[in-house]
Design a protein that fits this description.
With 92 residues, the protein is α+β, with helices and mostly antiparallel strands. It contains two helices and eight strands. The two termini are 15 Å apart.
């Protein structure tokens, strides 16, 4: 599966959280964890990741993307944000 994407300015690696692929997402982002119980802050969140650049735990909803941050670390993007910003990199 391709996990390299490009915008007009940079390449990133990203994986979409589908609710049952935590091991696959964790291969990209070791600090990604499925939530055992719903969060009081966001009942729709089903996972969390340690996000850049401030090393803060961020809640992740199903269909969100975990994306490498150009400055290091990882960020969460909604599916809408990711699709608007990036397209798959095609390798010959």
């Amino acid at each position: 599966m391709n996990d390299t994407y490009a915008s007009r300015h940079t390449h990133v690696r990203g994986r979409q959280w589908l609710g049952d692929n935590d091991a696959h997402v964790r291969e990209l982002c070791p600090d990604f964890w499925r939530l055992d119980e719903p969060s009081d802050d966001d009942p729709d969140a089903t996972a969390q990741l340690l996000a850049a650049p401030h090393s803060t735990w961020v809640l992740v909803r199903e269909s969100d993307w975990v994306v490498t941050h150009p400055g290091g670390g990882y960020v969460r993007m909604t599916d809408e944000q990711f699709v608007a910003a990036y397209e798959p990199v095609v390798t010959p």
